[in-house]
Amino acid sequence: MSTRASRMNLRPLADRYEGLARAAEQLLNLELSEKQLRAFRLYGRELVAWNARFNLTAITEPEAVEIKHFLDSLSCLMISELRPPAHIVDVGTGAGFPGLPLKIAFPQFRLTLVESVGKKVEFCRHIVRVLGLEGVEVIHARAESLGRDEEHRGHYDWAVARAVATAPVVLEYLLPLLRLQGYALLQKGATGPAEIHSAEHALAVLGGEVRRMIPVELPRVAEPRYLIMVEKTAATPEKYPRRPGLPGKRPLVP
Prior knowledge:
Blueprint: H1 7-10, H2 18-28, H3 34-51, H4 62-74, E1 87-91, H5 99-105, E2 110-115, H6 118-131, E3 136-140, H7 143-146, E4 156-162, H8 167-174, E5 178-188, H9 192-198, H10 200-206, E6 208-216, E7 225-232, H11 246-249
Helix pairs in contact: 2-4, 3-6, 4-5, 8-10
């Protein structure tokens, strides 16, 4: 994490994300440097510009981008174990969330972004270039295919997913990618507790156990959010993940 930046230095600078800086400090005890805040501002500007041509996100108002994209992504750091050195795979990353904000906050992370939609892959690669981020790989693929690739299966310390699919489905995407004693981190909305309850069978089949569920309250966001941390405690059977599309059509539920 970068050198401590005082609020006194941040507040007069109109071209920096004052609201994000304050919220990250209050929620996460994370103090973002001036360089990091400039990176977030450039990221937000590019997101809005690209969204005018491609439908990357429905959230484009600057304050909403700060809170609902950037701060929401950084809220993963409420899980204290999620710290460098670690190799993270972000499945269904979309416009780079939560992976790229985590990388900006902790450049020491190694990061792999996985996305199946070409325009979103192009945007992520563009942001990586524009921000000069090192140690980031962007892969154009479906999670089911990547989980059967020996270069990626059982390879990662952390697998994260934000608003990708229901818990039984997303666990079939994430757990095959993890090494033993690695962790899956699901970012969920109000349905999080019910979803993870419905995923008991999937967890038993895929080799995972829930270790923690933390509620997250974001400023000016009414809907509750949850971080669900799952440890990979046993090897995932070779037949999982199933072929592309099948986990969503036939989730691992009793």
